[in-house]
Amino acid sequence: MKKDSLLKSSLWISISGILSRILSVIYIIPWNIWIGPLAVGAANALYGKVYNIYNLFLIIATAGIPSAISKEVAAHNALGRFDQSEKLFKKYTIYMSLVGIVLAFIMFFGAKYVAIVLAAGDMRVVTPIKYLSIAMLIIPALGILRGYIQGYAFISYSAFSQVIEQIARVAYMLYATYTIMVLQKGNYMSAVNQSTLASFIGATLAYLFLLWIRVKVRRSVTVADVKTTTELPTETPEINFSSMLRSAIPFLLVDTIMTVLQLFDQTTFTWIYELILHASQKTIDDLYAMFGFQANKLIMVLVSLAISVSASVIPALSAMISRKAGKDKIQKLMQNIVQFTLFIILPATFGMIAISRQLWTVFVFYDQSILGSKVLIVSCVEAFFYCLFMILENILQVTHHVRKSLVYLVWAYLLKIVLQVPLTLALGVYGPVSATAISFIIMAHFAFRLINKQFQIVDKDLGKKLFRIFIDGIIMLIVVVLADFLVVKVISDATKIGAMIDIIICGLIGVAVYGFLSYKDGSLKILKDIRDTKIY
């Protein structure tokens, strides 16, 4: 087995992340149709609330350990300490499995109290939370195994396991929903319950796949790779729970921020609209489903791109720093990371903005597409700056700025809390998303400024490269908007099929335009620059 390069690992995670997110978006089309227009708002709002709660427990269950494991395994392996990597993996599989059991117990027997605290007392979420508690029994062990394999620089296999997990989850969701809603003419609550159970099925299949991959990973280590005691540095880090927890908690807090803010949205939005604006439950469900579930599902495609870059950056930087590489090499890697991040995420954001109305028609309903597309555009801006913030925070932690990264996280929370009520009252459904976006914009600025102060990333050459990427993205955006305007003159986007055709045509035009411009001005060379960058 050949280790993945930084480019290969990023591409694999990007592909698997995009495929997983596309699957999680595409299933909405038949799922919404089978739920029916009368119940779809309530079903989406309920499902969104339940999964925000589940994501919080999910992140607590993994406790940032997968990213920390990835970082530590890569550091040990770079020094030839493969025995320590194995001890680390076994020890934390046991620890985190016990954590999963405790959290499953809390979710199942304390679902009522969870609903009161995290869902503004919406008792509809109680039963789905109990169904999701079963997934907690395997999710922590799955996270440990993924981090372990990423640390060995076989990130492509970890990425592929996510595709397996998503395919199994979506397949069961659609099967259960069709059976309940179409064949049995059942209630949407039953369909939501079974849809949540699908998480356990997907996670189990992904775990079995990675167990098989682990056997192959261990066989890939040759005798020459393993260093003897005399060859090792005199000072090497020892494995203990407190040091691993200290390494994991910052990753946990970064991973948690979006979920916590979404939970904050679903409680405060309900309170604001009930107590101040005196809106009906249906209005609250419809509006919350719009930004808290439907738009959120679509922008997760962008977030998956950031996760792909971040997951590759952590072990690569960790290994480079553990080898005490020169500052110029780290600086070059940082510049490549900044350029590559913008090169990937910026055109994806502009592309979604350009065809936002057609995306809403395909994945939700045409009659909501005007308001929905506007919500999606604001959500895309939020997602773009969240992606930058998340990557910068992970870089801060790997480069020993953990305390500063936590300070920036706290300020992001405080800004969100201060802005939430006034922006929601002033902007309505756009308010919560705008408050989050502003928080990420401000704190991403401070995070980048700190990194740049240490490594002097920004210079005239990088500035020119980033400016070219931005101009290429703007030109692509204008061309796609014009193409969209012309296509809808010929093909009606009022139907899902028509909107899908429009998306395909405009998407191909956007890729062609951006690819051509990047090739002509040299921006495409970033792929070549990082192609041979090894993780360790």
TrEMBL record:
The chain crosses the membrane at residues 12-33, 53-71, 92-111, 131-155, 167-184, 196-213, 247-264, 298-321, 333-355, 375-393, 405-423, 429-448, 469-491, 497-517. The keyword Protein biosynthesis does not apply. It comes from Companilactobacillus nuruki. It is found in: Cell membrane. It is a multi-pass membrane protein. InterPro entries: PG_synth_SpoVB, Poly_Biosynth_Transport, Polysacc_synth. Coiled coil: none annotated. Its main location: membrane. GO terms for cellular component: plasma membrane. Keywords: Cell membrane, Membrane, Transmembrane, Transmembrane helix. It holds the Pfam family Polysacc_synt. PANTHER family: LIPID II FLIPPASE MURJ, PST FAMILY PREDICTED COLANIC ACID TRANSPORTER. This is Transporter.
